[in-house]
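ok so for the tutorial part 2 we go from a plain amino acid sequence to predicted structure tokens. step 1 is just haveing the sequence, like this:
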Amino acid sequence: MLVKELFEFKSIEDKEGKLFAKVIINASNAIFEGHFPNNPITPGVIQVQLVKEILEEKLQRSLSLKTMGRCKFLAILNPETTPEIDVEIAMTETEDGLKINAVGKHLDVNYFKFSALYIQK
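step 2 — the prediction. this is what the tokens look like for a chain of 121 residues:
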């Protein structure tokens, strides 16, 4: 888990089948020294992992990504200029697993959006 080292959850709320999380990214984490020097960018894989960890924290169970549908990274997420993002996750339990649609944003900027299917480990 990357929570507490690379990011922390300021809040996670459940409202009518959707999760709303406020996340703070740790810009001083060593990952940003190499990605990229003097121009830190939050890797896409970290943004996807962030959603998984929000789900695991709120649902209190371990999950595995089974499939990913559409996935778009729409803007550069620099933790120095945008240390806090809002993540919204719509989720539906199905017989195949947990289907989600996630969006990461701050103010009027969308940083990522994707759909996925998670299964319990």
